[in-house]
Amino acid sequence: MAEVAANRDGAMETFRKCWMLSTDDSNMTLHGFRRFKTTHLLNLRFLEHETADMDHAVYQTGLSLGLSPSSSDRLCLKHCRRDAGAPDFSQVVTPEFILKLRELLKQYDEALAAFNRIMNMETFSLLDDEKHASLRDDLTIDEILNTRLLRADLGTRSRTDPFQRWLHKRLRVFRYWRALGKYWNTERGLGPTAGRPRKWSYQNTILVADIIGRLITTTLTTAFLIAPLAILSYASSKEMQLVITLSCILVLCFFVSLFLKVSSFEIMAISAAYAAVLRYLFPTLRRALE
């Protein structure tokens, strides 16, 4: 009876926590899920190890047939190491072996593709969601800082700029020191003061970093358009104007490639467009000043 009561209490506690997370007013709590990165990787390694054993058996069986490799030998079969005393073909390639190999490859491919999709999803720190973090009794504040939750309601982060990721990190560090100094108790660094309910705080790092990144990008874009024109208006010789134009283009390309996630073709397009804008605006500004 004691065990049944304990199981019932455990189920009710689990339901209470899940209900709190599923009925919260914050989208971070509602759509934040653990990604279990290490466990996923461990599962993939187990599958990889099992698949590698079967793959080795397939290769050794194929080599034991004594067939000549193709002319190009794209698999380098001529240089494969052959095990001594390889089992007979009929003892390895059985219907049971084929079914097991087919199922194992299916599990491996699905797990690999699923992990790729998970790792491309937008993430935020468990530290950013104080209510969600308060339900985790097994983590220290440093572990909470480094625990990532997935945002199931957002798109992928495949186009997230390196500058925005840097902002994410800085905002998480700011949240960490703020939590240590103000919000969370000394023993665990977590949760409200006992007996006194309080309003949970959130830090939507994704949104804040996106807004700050857009504002900074807009400011720098404006500066790269106005500053060269102001400098060129005081340059008398054409050689000096050419040097200034080339320098501005190189600096812009450097900043774009360093802080934004763009392809080589996009960098070329940005450089060409920027040079064309300078070429068009400078004569217009020069005539206006005259």
TrEMBL record:
Sorted alphabetically, the keyword list is: Membrane, Transmembrane, Transmembrane helix
Instruction: Note whether DNA repair occurs among the keywords.
Output: no
Entry-linked Pfam families: DUF6594
Question: Boundaries of each DUF6594 domain copy?
Answer: 25-278
On whether Membrane is a keyword of this UniProt record, the answer is yes
Lineage: superkingdom: Eukaryota
Q: Where does the chain cross the membrane?
A: 211-235, 242-259
Classification via PANTHER family: DUF6594 DOMAIN-CONTAINING PROTEIN (PTHR34502:SF5), DUF6594 DOMAIN-CONTAINING PROTEIN-RELATED (PTHR34502)
Identification of the protein by name: DUF6594 domain-containing protein
Instruction: Record the organism.
Output: Podospora didyma
